[in-house]
Amino acid sequence: YPSRGHNNCIMTSKYNIITFLPVNLFEQFQEVANTYFLFLLILQLIPQISSLSWFTTIVPLVLVLSITAVKDATDDYFRHKSDNQVNNRQSQVLINGILQKEKWMNVRVGDIIKLENNQFVAADLLLLSSSEPHGLCYIETAELDGETNMKVRQSLSVTSELGDPNHLAQFDGEVVCEPPNNKLDRFCGTLYWRECKYGLSNQNMLLRGCVLRNTESCYGLVIFAGPDTKLMQNSGRTKFKRTSIDRLMNTLVLWIFGFLVCMGVILAIGNAVWEREVGFLFQSYLPWDPPVDNFLFSAFLSFWSYVIILNTVVPISLYVSVEVIRLCHSYFINWDRRMFCNRSSTPAEARSTTLNEELGQVEYIFSDKTGTLTQNIMTFNNSISAYDILALSQRAQPLDFSTWNPLADRDFCFYDASLLEAVKVGEPAVHEFFRVLSLCHTVMSEEKSEGELVYKAQSPDEGALVTAARNFGFVFRSRTPSTITTQELGKAVTYTLLAILDFNNIRKRMSVIVRTPEGRIRLYCKGADTVLFERLHSCSHDVMNITSDHLNEYAGDGLRTLALAYRDLSEEQWAEWAERYRGADKAIDCREDRLAAAYEEIEQDLMLLGATAIEDKLQEGVAETIAILSLANIKIWVLTGDKQETAVNIGYSCKMLTDDTTEVFIVNGHTVQSVREDLRLVARERMMESAHAANSPPTSVLESISGEFALVISGHSLAHALEADMEQEFLETACACRAVICCRVTPLQKAMVVELVKRHKNAVTLAIGDGANDVSMIKTAHIGVGISGQEGIQAVLASDYSFSQFRFLQRLLLVHGRWSYLRMCRFLCYFFYKNFAFTMVHFWFGFFCGFSAQTVYDQYFITLYNIVYTSLPVLAMGIFDQDVPEQRSLEYPKLYEPGQLNLLFNKREFFICIAQGIYTSVVLFFIPYGVLSQATQSNGVPLADYQTFAVTTATALVIVVSVQISLDTGYWTAINHFFVWGSVGAYFTILFTMHSSVLFNIFPKQFHFLGSSQNTLAQPVVWLTIALATVICIAPVLAFRFLKLDLKPQLSDTVRYTQLVQQKKWKPALGRLGRGGSRRSGYAFAHQEGFGELITSGKNMRLSSLALATFASRHSASWIDTLRKKKHNPHSTPPTGDICMFSPCLRGFPPGSPVSSHSPQTCSQANWTCYTAPRCV
């Protein structure tokens, strides 16, 4: 047997009671920020350099470490709970010839286990015997690959008779197999027993996590246990993805640390100069501390003291706040009922909490077609036989098959009677055609009652084809390992199954070899036409030409096509090939390659029977979603395994390709040279035409013409285009196109295309798919989205976000993604601003305190500033803020572009924030310093003391940053109000409490300054000073924002202002607005009549989304002035050239109609007055 070293105990948890504290702390201190603050804490424990008490750092550090530890402990508790539940499941193990109950954790390699119906498989087992005939058993693999269809497994014939425990106890075979791996679809091994060896494959294995179905019992030999099982081998950690803001923030933190060091050096130099020039005068009554014996050493200690004091420019609370905000954004996605699919009861799910803001920066979407853009619910549509008998769907009345076929599926719809008549009259070619469909498959049949057949297919395509054959009289009834039973036109027929040549993504075909009841041996094959046509006999070329024409016609209609063929084999041919096949099947090394070579050998000289066409309809809302995402400057690439014609047709159906597309370039070369020529010809033509039309310089042609062309490239051409010497040329050409469709591509090629764009483009990529063949693409992209559809849940398990419909993608990006990016950027800008405003006051104070590292604020204020006084308001803004409502985000996709261009938080915005923070610190220090140095109380006592200055500065700081966040908040909720004004109230409450007699009596050594805050804030001059500092800090910000709003407004400003004017001016008339002719309610334009026309016209839709942007950028007059004039004088006539800002005009006038037809009138979309204009947008 394989090694018996491992038992079957699994452990997915990370900690236990003893290891939790040290291991968790070790993990947390691997974060640079935590290590940095631990270093500061150590410095603060050194009395000679610490101006602050140790608790100013240890309190926030312990708080952060505790929150993270509690979260980790909670997660690990649930992992322990799950592990215990699984490990303590009971199984029946054969011990000394007797079946005994054992816990799963005690099962070992080499044990023989008995499984009963509906039981989970405890370990990876070699199936020895079964209660079903021929050693068959049926399993469900949903926990492994998400597929709920039953699959069949079969024991070796030599062990299938070991059904008795006594016989099994005598089993002494030896299994030699491959080492543990994570490949669910393959197993290679050999059984040595009774001086013979037998090849083992995946068909003989029951994997842990499967469930036994429709089988009374079976016995299996444990091959892999515990962590060696394929289920556990596939449970490795997913690659951690970081956002661009994360990477930028890490860079900025390093810069801030460098800035902190520079400030420390400047103040240390100042300390050295002051101690040398001035400090010696005080040595007689203020000597240096014992370790200090000269001014240089004093400067050295001063440097470290200021590093401690100024460390709050990078507070530890920043990282905690970011994680809290991301977690809340993830819950918003999970709770969004507009992304909930009622049909499948599937909500959207944010499976990752670290990528939310990157959803607002996506530039490239890579999408699968089948099941992602389409429904993946297959319907047999058309077929063609070798005798050119066409079944063209005329969409008349569906045929009633039940009148002559009692086993017909009543849900099957077909419309052309000619094919049915051909079956009834006994056309041999048509009979053979449907015989292939009834025999060449891996479908399992379950007969719940007499005549009630339920097919379990591994793919919707197979299910549709077998169901079609069933309705045309060729009914698949049942199978055994060696037979297939059908009912052909009412007659039961049993075929001997000699071999199954299974399908895979490389072969793109499958075959079965059967012996007919008459004794003939025949190979039936179905697969992609490009693959089968290469293997046809020369006499089939005429039929192939006819079939190719019809295949192109079907593909043009967006149908999925499949070719069918057969080959007769002689007994000698079968015997020779079967020997080679058995040798390849038993091979231990390179078994798959040897089997592929054997398959290739027999699948030659085929006779073409015809082809099938299966309809896979688009999902609801795909066309609208793609059109809207395109307006948001998001480029969509479709990567599919379908035929080129099918992919192109789907491209037109979903509006990736439109009538506005100048040209669709097709790259279909089979050699490196031909592909290069195609790409260069495409690029050259595009450059010449665009440069001529736009007068662009050659270097900017590709960028200037983006959106006018489309590129379609096949899989064999893509293989050459992805080579190192051509990938850059392919990428430039593809990125210059509005739409790119890659057809006939493999899963690996999908991932390579995504990686190519990631590597060479500074852009965020998103991959979306629904099947196992999309997993590599989903994991490669910055963001992976899984569709929970018809192909299992492997794509969902590998994804960062999941939902059930492609149309939800526009809401995920344009609403949740844009808001997450906006909120995170505003949060970071304000956070850095408030901390520089807080910290830099110490820097200026250093020049007035002899560079002694004395702090301006008391240590309690320093501790509580980022934890209590300013943490909650900025947290509320980061969680709830929004610039425009969600419907406006969908209505104006151009609002998405700032995220793609990274405009809201970058190095420039960062420097603006810290510059504002430094300016605020200057005002907060020098205004109180200048006023209080000459001020006196009402009784004539001077106010120029340290505590008065500290309280005044701290109070002014809290008020200024609170006013600033009030200006920064664009969307107020009750929570925002409570946090902002509650934080101000908390500051005064804590301030008065710390200076009260109660705390002084309890802790006289900690709270020295009794009543200082009460005395300070009782002085009118202090409040005037605070008010003056606040005005000087805030007034420039208000002035700058008003000027920017008036001179250079953003599209979001325009949308927000027009909405405000709308609400104020037309609120009484809104009740008269109806829903018009709209039938949908979940889209941005749902309330507008004529939304379909808007979508189908690319130009109109682009103008609609850009109308406000165009209006905002007019240079003749500011948009605010124009709107203000219209608001105050609604009957005035603006200058010629004004436009209606809302489109389409819904009074019945078509877009672009002359102004004389509606001047002035009311635009019914929003009750907006439409003034004289040469064209109505």
Description:
By secondary structure, the chain is an alpha+beta fold. It has 40 helices and 33 strands. It has a 9-stranded mixed sheet with strand order 13-31-30-29-14-25-28-27-26, with helices on both faces. An 8-stranded antiparallel sheet has the order 15-24-23-22-21-20-19-18, with helices on both faces. Strands 2-1-3-12-4-10 form a 6-stranded antiparallel sheet. α1 packs across α3, α26 packs parallel to α31 and α37 packs parallel to α40. The protein is elongated. The C terminus is likely disordered. It comes from Pygocentrus nattereri. Its EC number is 7.6.2.1. Belongs to the cation transport ATPase (P-type) (TC 3.A.3) family. Type IV subfamily. InterPro entries: ATPase_P-typ_cyto_dom_N (IPR023299), ATPase_P-typ_P_site (IPR018303), ATPase_P-typ_TM_dom_sf (IPR023298), ATPase_P-typ_transduc_dom_A_sf (IPR008250), HAD-like_sf (IPR036412), HAD_sf (IPR023214), P-type_ATPase_IV (IPR006539), P-type_ATPase_N (IPR032631). It catalyses: ATP + H2O + phospholipidSide 1 = ADP + phosphate + phospholipidSide 2.
